[in-house]
Design brief:
- The protein is of the alpha+beta class.
- It folds into two domains: 7-36; 47-131, no CATH class.
- It is built from four helices and five strands.
- The chain has a five-stranded antiparallel sheet.
- A hairpin with a 5-residue loop joins strand 1 (47-51) and strand 2.
- The longest helix is centred in the first third of the chain and has 22 residues, at 9-30.
- It is globular.
- The mean pLDDT is 84.
Length: 133
């Protein structure tokens, strides 16, 4: 035989309020603003980075492969000469940047011997993904 549990009105209201509070807390925890996105690294596909001692060059990582304690980055080299890392960031934000070489492979260890900064990030387009080996 089934038994029926009856709650007083105040218990029902309290239970509903508790459920709403828990639901709202769960929604806010799932929010895209709950955690800041991680900072992109030079080896992340889609990262724009500027590197250089006296003149900066702007690259974009297409793919990275770990090989014997190093990473080989497959990149695109852009046909621009940024005056600073901030200038490189502004260039990288543009929807279209002129390309000098579509595919350049570089050792991350060698790159890091020079001033280097990731200046921007956006996901790769299908055409950019197809360019990488």
């Amino acid at each position: 035989m089934l038994s029926e549990t009856r709650h007083t009105t105040s218990q029902s209201v309290h239970a509903r309020r508790t459920a709403v509070v828990v639901f709202v807390a769960l929604l806010s925890a799932c929010s895209s603003e709950a955690l800041p996105p991680p900072e992109p690294e030079v080896y992340d596909a889609g990262a724009f980075f500027a590197v250089g001692d006296t003149e900066l060059a702007l690259y974009r990582t297409l793919k990275a492969l770990r090989i014997e304690g190093d990473r080989i980055l497959f990149t695109t080299l852009y046909d621009v000469v940024p005056a600073s890392f901030d200038h490189a960031r502004e260039i990288a934000k543009q929807p279209s940047v002129p390309i000098r070489q579509e595919l350049v492979s570089i050792s991350q260890a060698l790159l890091e011997r020079h001033p280097l900064q990731v200046v921007w990030f956006r996901t790769l387009t299908k055409a950019e993904e197809d360019r990488s080996p």
